[in-house]
Amino acid sequence: MLHYAVVFLVIALIAALFGFGGIAAGAVEIAKILFFIFVILAVVTFVLGLFRRR
Questions:
Q1: pTM of the prediction?
Q2: Is 43 exposed, middle or buried (0-12, 13-18, 19+ CB in 10 A)?
Q3: Would you write out the chain's pLDDT as a tens digit for each of its 54 residues?
Q4: Which domain holds residue 34?
């Protein structure tokens, strides 16, 4: 999932470079959402891993 967030971030940077503001803004929003979902899932997995070891 982090891979997709990076892909959308790169798409947003390229779109912004060529002046496509609307496309860049949309890609940045998608990248942010995917990144936060990744962070939440990573924290949940880490916490569950700590409880399973005990």
A1: 0.72
A2: exposed
A3: 778 888 888 888 888 888 888 888 888 888 899 999 999 999 999 999 998 876
A4: 2-53
